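Question (not urgent): is this output format expected?
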Amino acid sequence: MVNQILAHISNTPKELIEYTQAQGILVEAYSPIAHGEFLKNQKVVDIAEKYGVSVPQLSIRYDLQLGLLSLPKTANPEHMKIMQKWISLFLKRIWSF
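Got this back:
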């Protein structure tokens, strides 16, 4: 089962996430970039620049570190390829089999 919730850097419903995960339900975080608002948020942009990543990468990494399935929305095929590669590399590091 999957519980799809709005979860991102500025909206992290911890109690709901913890309860859902404790029930063995996968949490899918939709809108990890806050409907594009983080692209304009200077604090988030500054943090991304500090770590040498894009704002979408930072946002997705945040969700992944919470154990959430992060599904960013994009219609740009190039963005899809970049995000797929980045997520795959991150998952290989944390789930090195």
